[in-house]
Design goal:
Helices cover about 40% and strands about 10% of the residues. The chain has about 525 residues and is α/β, with parallel strands linked by helices. An eight-stranded parallel sheet has the order 4-13-12-11-10-7-6-5.
Length: about 525
């Protein structure tokens, strides 16, 4: 639309000028009508604040017109603020407001039904405290880590260059630099756009080993060591699976592959890039721990962790047994829920594969605690997180820090158009179309990413203060309440059974609900 607008406006202007030679009433009134439209169109084309108007001059204003009158239309004819998936309009609006530092308060009370099953809330305190949001950080790095990292409790989740545009990557990394939080590269490799602004990076190594890939597609330790030494790379993450398509591998459609992306990833042009569903660098839990140890040594002792969406419970217990047997542990584990997002995934995988995030998080926390290693391994989690309450809830039930992907995309202009997989993202976020990418102005959107992080952390700090706590480390499952039916309320410590430290180290103390998986799990194999 940007290119079409330029040519059409020039054509119309020339036609009007030529028509002016023979001034007639028709030409005069045409000029009166068209000139203001051309003015609005060029103003949209040249401004840098709104991507939709920049990419779709003149016509993009209809979105903002409908946005202005939509509350009344929705109130009486369409939907409420709490409707809409995967993110409701209320959730999207909160992200936009905080990214722009607009008014983010709610008038006239909650629109949620607080007596419906599933409603959740936090237990506040009569004696509130003051929490500095800048102090809400944790140190990631176990006993064998030589370069521990002080991480914000909110960071950008894994999204690859290729799936996202170069301007989106630049804006997110610039925001991470400005806001002092980490940016996960995604499995697509370490691109120049991840490095340009100097934001802290978590380099994700997927099954395709992009940016550390030998010509035959296997892992190259030499390439890895060279790039892991970069000062911006603060942590390494081995991707086992992701919530939106666990066991499927990554997909980058051929139409989104440019020569530059092919060079970064070391893949051919003209065909879909499908990462294998499993790693070739290891075949069992023991080898997996040994691979993590190799990465930590090759990176100079930087924190190394792994990310997965839990499927079979025995497989996670197998990993824990391998830690015990080898004495090698990751510095952190990232738990992704089955509700996690992606740019492209088969519907069946998105809807029906993978344990949901809350259950996954509680189970992983319990296993690590049961094997007596929870205090040495940090746990991160992700999966549809956009507000301070979302963060507090996950931290209370077992996480140390949070990843968020889609909320940060919304902060830089995503409108949930659900066209991420088509290369036609209208906001220039998830596309390689240069005409659409040009509409995303990095200097403006990096500020919005940083502002969203800052305002959300302020919200988290205020919630912690209202609960009478001094830091997120003090959160426990009983701080979050949930209505389980119309007459019963329970806290998360009652809803889920949290086990005692060390009980999974000996068969004699294994709780009954873990016994079957514990007996089947083997450090030597993922499979029975």
């Amino acid at each position: 639309m940007r290119r079409e607008f330029v040519w059409s406006s020039i054509t119309i202007t020339v036609a009007l000028i030529l028509g002016g030679v023979f001034v007639t009433p028709n030409v005069f009134w045409s000029f009166v009508i068209i000139a203001p439209l051309l003015f609005v169109g060029w103003r949209d084309f040249l401004q840098t604040k709104h991507t939709i108007r920049r990419n779709f001059p003149l016509f993009g204003n209809f979105r903002y017109l409908f946005e202005a009158i939509r509350p009344e239309i929705n109130q009486y004819f369409v939907e409420s603020n709490t409707d809409g998936v995967p993110f409701s309009r209320e959730e999207r609006s909160l992200v936009y407001q905080r990214a722009k530092k607009d008014l983010d308060t709610l008038p006239f009370g909650t629109q949620k039904n607080v007596y419906v099953d599933g409603y959740e809330w936090l237990s506040h305190s009569i004696q509130a405290s003051h929490v500095d949001p800048n102090q809400l950080r944790i140190e990631i790095g176990g006993p064998k880590c030589k370069q521990p990292y002080s991480a914000s409790i909110l960071n950008i989740s894994a999204m690859s260059y290729g799936s996202l545009s170069q301007n989106a990557i630049l804006a997110l990394n610039g925001g991470a630099k400005d806001g002092g939080f980490a940016h996960n590269t995604g499995e697509g490799g370490l691109s120049p756009y991840h490095l340009e602004h100097g934001g802290d990076l978590i380099w994700q190594i997927g099954t395709g080993y992009f940016s550390a890939r030998a010509p035959d597609g296997t892992f190259s330790e030499e390439l890895f060591a060279k790039k892991a030494a970069h000062e911006n790379v603060k942590m390494i993450e081995v991707k086992i699976s992701q919530g939106a398509k666990p066991g499927h591998g990554g997909i980058l459609p051929a139409k989104k592959i440019t020569p530059e992306i092919a060079a970064i990833r070391h893949v051919p042009m003209g065909q879909d890039v499908i990462s294998p569903p499993s790693h070739s660098a290891f075949n069992n839990p023991i080898e997996m721990m040994q691979f993590i140890g190799r990465l930590r040594d090759a990176s100079g002792g930087k924190p190394v962790g792994f990310k997965l969406c839990i499927g079979k419970r025995r497989e996670f217990i197998s990993i824990c047994k391998a830690m015990e047997k080898t004495g090698i542990m990751p510095d952190y584990i990232s738990i992704d829920g089955g509700e996690g997002g992606t740019g492209a995934a088969p519907l069946e995988f998105s809807n029906y594969v993978g344990m949901p995030g809350v259950e996954s998080l509680v189970f992983a926390h319990n296993c690590l605690k049961g094997f007596g290693v929870r205090d040495q391994i940090k746990v991160m989690t992700s999966g549809r997180i956009s507000s301070g309450f979302d963060i507090i809830k996950r931290l209370a039930i077992g996480a140390d820090a949070i990843y968020s992907a889609r909320a940060f995309l919304l902060s830089i202009g995503c409108i949930q158009a659900l066209r991420c997989h088509s290369n036609h993202c209208p906001t220039g976020v998830a596309t390689q179309n240069p005409n659409l990418v040009a509409g995303l102005v990095v200097t403006d959107k990096r500020i919005r990413a940083a502002t969203f992080h800052r305002e959300t952390m302020r919200g988290v700090a205020e919630l912690l203060g209202a609960m009478g706590l001094d830091h997120s480390r003090e959160l426990r499952p009983w701080h979050v309440m949930r209505r389980t039916n119309s007459t019963e309320v329970r806290h998360y410590g009652e809803i889920y059974d949290y086990i005692e430290s060390g009980v999974l180290k000996s068969e004699s103390t294994v709780p009954e609900e873990y016994m079957r998986a514990w007996k089947i799990a083997q450090a030597e194999s993922f499979r029975v």
